[in-house]
Design goal:
heterodimer; A: mainly alpha; 75% helix; B: 335 residues; alpha/beta; 12 helices; 22% strand
């Protein structure tokens, strides 16, 4: 199978995934007790008023019909109108995406920049029981602290003395770069710390695994220096599992951003999304889910493509594929 | 230079685990002269692979040397610092491993790997590949390891190993993972290339038949050390160690027509320290109290080296056996 065909198959799979996700979410949000009319009109509204409101927004129609209407609008680039703010969903999203995007990218950069070198160091370091124990302990500790605990602690600590950083006063990146950095360090740290631990662990295990492979022994037997072997054989072979982890982390960060954004009052899509669920603002919920699902699916597709580039055995039908 | 190509002196290697220590080499001795072709034969667990790895000091990290040394052309392998051992590996020793595809980096094309491995040797990669019988170097160079057959990958590995013209080539089960039909050609290639460059070749294998065909000398290993060391004809005509005899009786391809293969009863020993008596004693039909209490050392019996207290017994026994088998053979050829 060629690389091109491999990607076409993945793309088809991605579209199916998005359709299924949007259907499930559509069905779920419309079947949750308490519709939009209940939220807006309150518990004492007359049935007539409810019916009137439902009719106004097309909510009286069967759910499959509503779904098809929504889908055909989306295909034409129309994400609908927020029923709460009466503004177009696309413009609301456009206003909020940059903050979330920045947060997720910063968290990702932090995880990679800290996690990869730590993982390489741990993977190459001597197999002493002490180093193994400390790295395991540090890893499980960081991985098991929930975002909201870490975030709340940081908010508390840095509210007392901010040490140059800012808590809860978000500044857009276009307004004031330094101010933006001051306001984003803590959120990115909160969101990314889990990633540091995950990436470190993956990188460490990957390196340990590669080091036991015969081609490493063969390179040693040829008289290659350790530095050469690490650069030439170890790094690339051990980066393969990392690609998958990064794709998964992007998904984790998008969902994690909801909590981090509300903790640090960042006007991203997380808070917007949370409110829209509470208000049964169907169009916004649908758009936000579609957006995050798309990012997740694209990240995984990119990971698959990258995987195929890094490991020539992927997407190959050679009989030797199973050989290790 | 009078130095032996390889000299292993009472080498003991243990694998240290969390709960137990297993002795893999138990005072092994082996001498290989320049240009000599030697086959080292033994079952799994006899210490073959450990000995092969010890030659290049490429043992796994759990291995610990508790005694002895390896010298290659007079240089002590375990006495060298890291830099010097790398130089020795680069210039003097070539290695060929068991699973050829996995000895190549799966993420890089053969061409790139060969250029990396042969940088500075001045060897022409195309010529190297042709000399190992790969007639279409272009195709091979642009392939990834998984796109090659096992036989082709082993040819590439041999080309890489031989490109620096090592004076000692160590092959650890070089054909065990290959098709029966390819095994012979790879073995021939190894022997032919070693002869052409006057490289000493040590083949570690469980395949007695291959050894019979290609080697000058055979070393039989058991319980972590050689127990018999003799010329090919001596081993096959008059094996003196009971284990060698058992190995021959169990081997495919060296039996006479109509004979049955006879497995050796029992399993190889797992040692945890220096064996006190003869490590083969529990499986040996001839063992007595001396065998169980006194460690047999290698000694010269009828012009071949053997580590058995009762080897003399077999010099006569073999003659009897051969005499007794003569009518059998005429019968077999007659039929």
């Amino acid at each position: 199978m060629s690389l091109a065909r491999f990607l076409v198959v993945r793309l088809a799979g991605a579209i199916v995934t998005l359709l299924v996700v949007s259907m499930v979410v559509f069905a779920a949000i419309h079947n949750v007790p308490g519709g939009y009319e209940d939220v807006v009109l309150g518990p004492l509204a007359t049935p007539e008023l409810r019916a009137q409101t439902a009719e106004k927004y097309g909510l009286d129609q069967p759910i499959p019909v509503q779904y098809v209407k929504w889908l055909s609008a989306v295909v034409h680039g129309d994400l609908g109108t927020s029923m709460t703010s009466k503004t177009s969903v696309s413009s609301e999203l456009a206003r909020r995406i940059p903050a979330t995007l920045e947060l997720v990218l910063l968290a990702l950069a932090f995880s990679l920049l800290a996690g990869v070198p730590l993982g390489i160091a741990a993977g190459l370091s001597s197999d002493s029981r002490f180093s193994r124990a400390t790295s395991r302990l540090a890893g499980s500790l960081t991985m098991s602290i929930p975002d909201f605990v870490l975030g709340a602690t940081l908010v508390y600590l840095f509210s007392v003395n901010s040490w140059w950083l800012r808590v809860g006063s978000y500044v857009g990146i276009t307004e004031d770069l330094v101010g933006n950095i001051r306001s984003m360090v803590l959120p990115a740290f909160t969101l990314g710390l889990f990633g540091v631990a995950v990436i470190m662990r993956t990188q460490r295990d990957a390196i340990r695994g590669v080091l036991t492979q015969t081609f490493i022994t063969a390179a040693v037997a040829r008289g290659d220096a350790p530095r050469t072997i690490i650069r030439r054989n170890v790094i690339r072979n051990s980066s393969i599992p990392l690609v998958t982890i990064v794709a998964v982390l992007i998904g984790a960060f998008i969902s994690g951003s909801v909590i981090v954004e509300s903790l640090f009052s960042i006007p991203g899509i997380g808070v917007f999304f949370l409110n829209s669920v509470r208000n049964r603002d169907y169009a916004v919920v649908q758009a936000a889910v579609l957006l995050s699902a798309t990012v997740f699916v694209v990240a995984n597709m990119v990971a698959d493509a990258l995987y195929a580039v890094l490991d020539p055995r992927v997407g190959s039908t050679s009989a030797a594929r199973g050989q290790k | 230079m009078n130095d032996a190509a390889l000299e292993v002196r009472s080498l003991s290697i243990d694998y240290v685990g969390r709960n137990s220590t297993v002795r893999s080499l138990d005072g092994a001795d082996l001498v290989v002269q320049p240009g000599e072709i030697v086959g080292v034969v033994g079952e799994s667990g006899s210490g073959k692979s450990t000995l092969a790895a010890a030659i290049g000091r490429i043992l796994p990290t759990s291995a610990e040397r508790s005694g002895g040394d390896v010298t290659i052309f007079g240089r002590s392998v375990f006495g060298l610092d890291d830099r010097s051992i790398r130089g020795l590996r680069r210039k003097e020793i070539g290695f060929v491993f068991q699973n050829p595809i996995s000895t190549l980096d799966p993420t890089k094309r053969i061409g790139k790997q060969m250029r990396d491995a042969l940088a500075g040797t001045g060897a022409d990669i195309g010529d190297m590949l042709r000399s190992v019988g790969l007639a279409d170097p272009k195709r091979v160079l642009s392939a990834y390891p998984h796109q090659l057959s096992g036989g082709m990958a082993q040819r590439v590995a041999i080309a890489i190993a031989m490109a620096r013209k090592p004076r000692l080539l160590v092959a650890d089960e070089p054909t065990a993972s290959l098709d029966r039909t390819v095994q012979a050609t790879i073995m021939e290639l190894l022997v032919q290339m070693s002869r052409a460059d006057n490289t000493a070749l040590v083949i570690f294998t469980h395949d007695l038949r291959a050894v019979a065909q290609y080697c000058d000398r055979v070393v039989v290993m058991y319980g972590g050390r050689p127990v018999e060391d003799a010329s090919c004809s001596q081993i096959f005509d008059s094996p003196l160690h009971p284990y060698s005899q058992g190995l021959l009786a169990a081997a495919v391809g060296v039996e006479d027509q109509g004979d049955q293969l006879k497995p050796i009863p029992g399993a190889p020993p797992v040692l945890h320290g220096t064996s006190i008596g003869c490590s083969f004693a529990p499986r040996c039909t001839f063992a007595d109290d001396t065998c169980r209490q006194e460690r047999p050392e290698m000694r010269d019996v009828a012009a071949q080296m053997v580590a058995c207290h009762h080897a003399e017994r077999f010099t006569e026994r073999i003659t009897d056996l051969i005499a007794a088998r003569m009518p059998d053979q005429t019968e077999a050829t007659g039929a």
